[in-house]
Amino acid sequence: MKKFIFYTIKSVQENCDTFSCRFKAGFLSRLWLLVLGTILMTDYTAKAQNILGTAPVVAPKGGFAIDGNAFVNYSGEAGGDFLFQVGVTDASANPGGIFKPVPPLFNGQPYTYPDGPLPTPGQTGADSFYVYPLTTFFRDNITINDPTIFTSTNKINDNISSYSWGMGSSPNKNEIQNAIAHFTHGDPINFPGQNPPVLATDLWLIFAADRQVTDGSSYIDFEILQKKLEMTVTGKDSKGYDKGVFTSYAGTPSGRLPGDLLITVEFTKGGVSANVVVRRWTGTAYGDPITPPTGAVYGTNNTAQTIVPYPIYNQAPFATNPNVWAYEPNQWAEGAVNITRIFADFSTPDACFTISTLFVRTRTSGSSGQSELKDFPGAPFQVNLCSDQVKPVISTTATSGALEGCNPTVTPPTFTGLDNCDGVFTPVVTTTGPTNIGCAYTQTWNANYTDKCNNVADQKSITYTWTSDTTLPVIADKPDYTLAGCNPDWPAVVTTTYTDNCDAGGSINGVAGDVQTSQDGCTQYRDYTFNFTDSCLNVALTQTTRVSKHYDLTAPVIADKPDVVLEGCNPAWPTVVTTTYSDNCDAGGSINGVAGDVQTSQDGCTQYRDYTFNFTDSCLNVALTQTTRVSRHYDETAPVIVDKPDVVLEGCNPAWPTVVTTTYSDNCDAGGSINGVAGDVQTSQDGCTQYRDYTFNFTDSCLNVALTQTTRVSRHFDETAPVIVDKPDVVLEGCNPAWPTVVTTTYSDNCDAGGSINGVAGDVQTSQDGCTQYRDYTFNFTDSCLNVALTQTTRVSRHYDETAPVLICAADKTVACGTTVVFEPPTATDNCTGNITINDLGDGIPVTNADGSITYSHSWSATDECTNISIPCIQMVTVGDCGNGCTPGFWKTHPELWDNCNDPVVKAIPGDTCGAAGGEFTTSTGFVAYFGITTNCGQGCNISNLPTTMGAAMGAGGGGCKKLARTGVAALLNASALGSKYLDFLGLDFNQLYMAIKEGFNTCNYEPLATQLDNANNQNHDLCSGLPGTIQTDAISLIEATAKTTSNAVFDAYPVPFKDQFTIRYKFDYVSDVKIEVFNAQGISVLTKTDTNSYLNKEITLDLKTSKGQEQVYIVKVTTNRGSSTKKVVSSR
């Protein structure tokens, strides 16, 4: 059995109280073989036989009937079965089936039951075939080569580590094709009063399986292990199949633990019942058979035909529409096993246990310890099955609630745990918090635990609440303040507020301190102190507020300000005259005097006024009065400025004068000189004259202003550069034109007259692609005022191309005889863009070669737009010799040439041993034996269909193998009679020709060889026409002798390209007269030379300087007495 397919396994239990949590998809597909592990463990003896009855399970409905049949109510026990009752379509029927009553389509078509498990929902095109999710149906592949066979003489009790496996075969009595497994639980509601009682926690396995043959004894082992066992690949065998060993995690030499189970199903030869034997591992071996508990096992084989809806062992359907198949008696078995009771201690059905691996295999006999292991269906199956369904219990002595007092010490609660299997455990405690809203704190501890079988305990939670306050209350800092007025009374009370993070806020009164006086005696103050403690005895920081008052009974003092003389002439009287005062308490300051009337001196040049000062402080203390006199100088007559004439400066753009000066006089002050103030520069309308007005003003010491005078200074002004006209870039016409002798443009100037100037030519520069050259012509000019114009540049370009285009002919080629000579047009490229003209130079003179082939040539040249002409190129086409051969009809009508051992054609055949069995080649030689044909190709080409003799092959009609028979025999006769003249055309020697024909028959590939030989055999050699009924031996010998003398005249030519001369070197190793010919591209001979002393590597120099054109292609032909060869050479400029 091989190629079992399963899914990934998860732990059996995820949510212990539900059926689905126990069996994920992977567990279902891998555990199906456990079905067979308890097949027919019937009765309650060490070797159990058929027990019929109904397994008390919840699915299918009505329990499961163990009756040897597959359908509900089909001549068996009442109750559910694998398939619904015939005619029922309702999947909710009771009793019911495990598979849907109407099988779904797969990808829109009826399911054909290929190898592997039934498709499951989620696969492309698949729907569920099952009523219940924890069901699987599996079909095993049946082949000759089984990749999972025990490869050494392993016994049941051997250490698992000594087992080896690989590819092999096993007897068909050990072959199983179809198996079914379904997992469910006990149904105490519908099956009450049984002994022992049915438990809802009982895990049941319902199964069925078949075997291929019933005429031998079959033994199937199902080993159930508590620790994991894996199949390990260690390499590959000589045929590329995997091989390996087994790896156990039990940690024991045997790879097993005490209590592991071995369940053996025995189908005995001729027996009417299947036997089931159960053994336990004792530590060193599997012990004697044990008796299972009552009610734990049901099972039976079929005692009559069992009808099923799926194909079995390549049998034809038992009936059609719909198709059904039938098992013969003793070929099918089914059963049900209470797994919980089998794997636990029989006396404690709720005991804790774990199953890791199920290992299924076959063996040679029923002897437990000595029988040899044979086959196993695939890797051991990892099941990870756990029996425990009881939740662990978590306890604590703590209770949720509020903790006493402020800021209590919080001690986390303690949790303990107890599990029915794990025993005492420590729960996993997590906490959230503490969290708070203000000062109210809360924290919760959650205790959880999941046991080894994934049973989750009910969570236990404890929550504490408490008040936490270590924050001080805050007293509002009342700002210090000063009482209003002078010498006020102290306040009766001073109040502020406080706040607390937990308690409510409020107000408090400060405690008044002693009255204190400042050092200057003008301020008195008292400090008011504030304190507060909250309900959690947190003491606020002390705050203090100082209350101050102004205290003053002393008069201020006014400073006596000296009399003042105002500066300058006719100054305005001061708006205010100020002096200062000081006070013992108030800050000092300034006060304004009260102005008296204006009075004038006797000479009228001086005036004065008296200012009086008074002050009273903030406490109404009055100072003594003070007086100050203010005097000024008086004058209002203007001075006179002399008028200076206008000035014109010399030269071009002269500098403006640093200073322009004139004089003035005054009625009171002394006279003098003054400088003019330069005005803005102004420009004439034409822009060539500028002038500035210098203005003269004067004010005397008494600020009397003279009348203004102005002098204009002018100059010639030109700072504008002339302008050179930007001449556009120029592209010269044609190819490679001469540069211009002079390039001219014009200029203009704002003040001077315009004109023309010539550009200065720069160096010639070339573009990156080499196809464009250019020169920059530079223009410069300076005007009469030395203003330099901006440089202008004009680029003159020309198309530059002196490089010939490159012409590439198509590669020389050789074509078969009769092929029309076609020359392919060449391709041309040029270093510059533009049209390229291809010039057809015509055909050359055909050259006939010594081997019978003819070489044709055609040449071309190319011209670009600048008339540069390329090196010509030439393409040579060699038409192959049409060969020589006689038709099958010729050889058929002339058997006298090859019907006995003394015929010259027969004698010339290589390897012919005329007279020896199988060694001759005559008309009577056996055709199949001579070619060693061993393959029957069908379609009229089997060995029996082929010609019996070589002579019969000449008359074989039709295509395929018949065509190759007549053309192949004719080809060997032509090769013998005509020698290399014929074989050279084929490119084969006699042995290669023979092997090619032989391979064609043995591989059933007749073409294209048959057609190639047919062409070679139909060239009508002179020997094959116009002859009488007999042929002369010497004629054959003559043709053979001449045909075998052909060879090539190989040579090298260098240098390429050449100038004036080139050299050829002989590459043939025989002595011959040599003729050397040189042809141009048109096929015209330009040189002929003969050499009567040739030898290997001899060099001959040829001089073409009198005949050489410009860059031409030449054809060199060298002819010896064994043939001729040609090469192309190219000349340079």
TrEMBL record:
Q: Which NCBIfam families has this protein been placed in?
A: Por_Secre_tail
- InterPro entries noted in UniProt: Secre_tail
Q: What is the lineage of its organism?
A: Bacteria, Pseudomonadati, Bacteroidota, Flavobacteriia, Flavobacteriales
Keyword check for Signal:
yes
List residues of the Secretion system C-terminal sorting domain. Answer: 1054-1130
Q: Which UniProt keywords apply?
A: Signal
UniProt keyword Signal, yes or no: yes
User: Highest taxon of the source?
Assistant: Bacteria
Q: Which Pfam families match?
A: Por_Secre_tail
Q: What protein name applies here?
A: Por secretion system C-terminal sorting domain-containing protein
